[in-house]
Each structure stands twice: as C-alpha cells, then as structure tokens.
Write a structure and sequence with these properties.
The protein is of the alpha+beta class. The chain has a domain of 109 residues. The chain is 20% helix and 33% strand. It has 3 helices and 12 strands. Strands 3, 4, 5, 6 and 7 form a 5-stranded mixed sheet that branches. A hairpin with a 5-residue loop joins β1 and β2. The chain is globular, with a radius of gyration of 17 Å. The N terminus is likely disordered.
Length: 216
C-alpha cells in the first residue's frame, strides 16, 4: 500500500454530502463527487473529444498503454492498477474514467492523475468502514467515513493490508478545497447500470459542465 500521507491542517468549507435518494418529484438522483479545474493534472482520453489529444487549460493529455494496466479487469483491479501506475510514475493518486481508445499505436486507457498536493493516500481500519463487500458499498462507506472525519470526499484504491493490528483499507482522501458532492438526475447520466458505465457517464457529465473529472 502506498505510504500514508498526512492531511492535517487542510481547511475548507463544509462539504454538502447527500446520499443517493429520490426527490419529492420521484426523480432518481445520483451523488457525484466533482473535482475542480486545474487540479487534474493529466487526463486521457477526453470523454467528449475522443478522437484527438490536445493540451487543455485544466490538464495534459496522457495515454496509458494497456501493457501497463491489466486488460479486461474488474473495477477493483483496474483502480488498484491505476493507482500503482501513478505511484510508480511519480504521482500521488489517480483513478480511471473507464474510457479507452486506439489511435493506431495500441489500446490506451483513460486515467485522471490528481495534483499530489490536493490528495493523500491513507490507511483506514476496515472496521471503521463497516466491512463493505461490494464495489458500491466500498465507495459509499469510504465517503461516509471521509465526511464524518474530514468534511471531505474520498474514494477507495482497493488496496488492503494487515500490519498486525487488523485489516486496513487504502483510501484516497481529497482536499475539500477542490472536491465537492452534488446530486444529479440519473436521466442526465443516461441511467448507467454498471460501475464502469457510471464512471464514464459522470466524467462526461463533469466535462460538459466545466469540471475536470468526477466519480460516483
């Protein structure tokens, strides 16, 4: 697991975190965690501009060849691999957007590499997360923990370890100066059904609406 990094001293506004719910009008909403422009330092491929890779104000295009990441992998494996790849290449954390493309030089995966000064990898006892079992449960549990303890948002990197005092889970904690949560009608996301579809949908929605990246 990546080295633990302190986030002590980070101050920001309280995050407005709300659960997945139905509104009074019975519109199903999905909680999105948005990352502000300028804090995703590299992204590829662009969800909206999938046919080309150009420098943008809020990031640098970056291709991650499949030889560095496992192909046809499940969600936890892909997220672990992306974080390991980022750490090996000098970045703190990253997460996949589950886009992929082939521009003639082999298949590449879409990855958002985060500004290391605005994110930290921490170890959290799995018991504090309620021992979540599914991918969706882990995302919810990690964000509940981050909201309770840091007024922030987070996502799991799906690493686990036991150093003699019980199992700990790897959590990527985002500085709440750059990340916030909102609710978006599921219809605006195209009603995604799988985790991979949801990642793609929320990132496309975020890009269209002026954010660098998002996860859900």
């Amino acid at each position: 697991m990546d080295p633990v990094k302190s986030i002590a001293g980070h101050s920001a506004q309280k995050i407005d975190e709300r659960r997945l719910k139905k509104s009074a009008l019975s519109i199903l909403l999905k909680g999105l965690f948005l990352i502000a422009p300028l804090h995703v330092i590299a992204t590829f491929p662009e969800p909206v501009e999938a046919q080309q890779c150009q420098n943008r104000q809020n990031g640098i295009c970056l291709s991650v060849p499949t030889l560095q990441l496992p192909q046809n992998s499940d969600v936890p494996t892909r997220i672990r691999a992306v974080n390991d790849w980022a750490f090996r290449n000098g970045s703190t954390v990253a997460f996949p957007n589950f886009h992929q493309a082939d521009y003639g030089n082999g298949l590449v995966f879409g990855v958002h590499v985060l500004d290391g000064t605005m994110a930290a990898s921490v170890d959290v006892p799995i018991s504090q997360l309620g021992n979540p079992r599914t991918v969706e449960d882990q995302f919810r549990a990690v964000n509940d923990w981050a909201s309770r303890n840091h007024n922030s948002v987070a996502f799991p990197n799906f690493h686990q370890a036991n150093y003699g005092s019980g199992t700990v889970a790897g959590v990527v904690l985002l500085d709440n100066r750059i990340a916030r949560s909102i609710d978006v009608p599921m219809s605006e996301l195209g009603n995604p059904r799988t985790v991979e579809e949801r990642f793609r949908a929320v990132n496309e929605w975020a890009t269209i609406n002026g954010y660098s990246a998002a996860f859900s």
